[in-house]
From TrEMBL:
The keyword Plastid does not apply. Belongs to the DegT/DnrJ/EryC1 family. This is Aminotransferase class I/II-fold pyridoxal phosphate-dependent enzyme. InterPro entries: DegT/StrS_aminotransferase, PyrdxlP-dep_Trfase, PyrdxlP-dep_Trfase_major, PyrdxlP-dep_Trfase_small. One of its GO terms (molecular function) is transaminase activity. Gene3D superfamilies: Aspartate Aminotransferase, domain 1, Type I PLP-dependent aspartate aminotransferase-like (Major domain). Keywords: Aminotransferase, Pyridoxal phosphate, Transferase.
Amino acid sequence: MGKDKIWLSSPHMGGNELKYINEAFSENWIAPLGPNVNGFENDIKNYLGEASSNNIEVAALSSGTAALHLALILCGVEHGDEVLCQSMTFAASANPIVYLGATPIFVDSESETLNICPEQLEIAIKDRISKGKKPKAIVAVHLYGMPYKVDQINEIAEKYEIPVIEDSAEALGSTFKGKKCGTFAKFSILSFNGNKIITTSGGGALVTQSSDSKKKAVFLATQARDDAPHYQHSEIGYNYRLSNISAGIGRGQMEVLDKRVEGRRDMFHFYVNLFRDVEGVKVFKEPNDDYFSNHWLSVITIDPEKTGGVDREDLRKCLESENIESRPLWKPMHMQPVFTNNPFYGTGIAEEMFKNGLCLPSGSNLSDRDRERIQDAILNCLKK
Ligand SMILES: *Cc1c(COP(=O)(O)O)cnc(C)c1O
C-alpha cells in the first residue's frame, strides 16, 4: 500500500474561497487592488480589533517579508543602522534588515516561550549603545504561535525608546492575556504563505495602530506614486500590494480561522496525549494561562539520554521513512553561514533547542488515519 505524504503544515481551504475569486473574475478585478483586498483588510482589522482598545489598521501585502521590509522603513531604518532580531526564527525575520543595508544583531531565546530573551535583549541594547550605536528597532517573533514575553519586551523597548516590530507570521489566532498577537507593537506583520495557519497561497499584511502609517505603507507598496496625472516619484517605492485574487482566498480563509486554530490545537493535544508516558520527550507548552498559542506547529524536545539513545535525527528519519514530514526547529540565525559575522548575544538556549527540538505534522486537515500513522511511526521508533 503506497502511503500518501503527511506534511508538516499544508493549506486547508474552507469552501468560500472560490466564491470570492469568482466575484473578482466576474467584475474583472484582476489587479493588486479591489473589493477583495479591502474586504480582506477589513476582516483582519475586525478580527484583531475585537479584544483591543487600540485602533487597528491593516495593509494587505504580497508577503510577510514585504510587510517586515516596510515596517523597518517606517521605523526609519537606514543604511548603516543596527536592528536587534530574535536569532531563533525563520530567515525572513532578518533578511529585510539586510535589504536596507542595516545589520541584524542577534539575540538568544529564553526557554519558556523559545522567543527573544528579555535579559539578553537588554544586555545587547546596553552593549550596542556603549559601542556608539543605538539599535533602531527590535524584531520579536511569536515562534510556532507561542507569544513572546510581551510585557517584559515592551518594558525594555519603552525604557530605551526603541520600537518593536512584532513578527506574528506564525501567530495569527494566538493571544497573550486575552489580547491577540499582532496588536502588541507599533508595527506587526502577518504571513499568509502556503504553510501558515491560513493562507492566500502567498501574501502578508502590515498591522499598525495609526491610519497615517497604513497610508504610508500602501503608498510605498504601490511604487510611491506622487499625486499627479503623470507618473511622478519623490521616493523609492515597491510593488508589494496583495493581488485581488489572492485576497479572495484570504476572505474565505478568515471565515474559518477560528476552526483552524481549533484544529491545530487538537493536534497539539494529540501529541500531549501521545507523549504523556514517554520518557525523554517533552511537548512544548504554554508556560502559564497568560499565554494561548495557536500551536501553528507542535514542537517536541528529545533527550536521547532518557529515550534509550533515540535522538532528534533518529526520530526525524523514522518519520521520513514512513513518508511523514517533520523538521528540526528553525536553525538560529547566528548559526547560519550567511550571518557568521553578525554580533550575537546569548547563552546557548537557541542552540540547545535547535539540537534537540523537532516540529511534528500539525495541519488542521490531518485525519484520524493520519494520526494513527504518525503515532505508530513515533512509538515504533522509540521502542527500538
Ligand atoms: C513565514 C514567516 C515570515 C515570512 O512570511 P512570508 O509571507 O513567507 O514572506 C516571517 N517570519 C516568520 C517567523 C515566518 O514564519
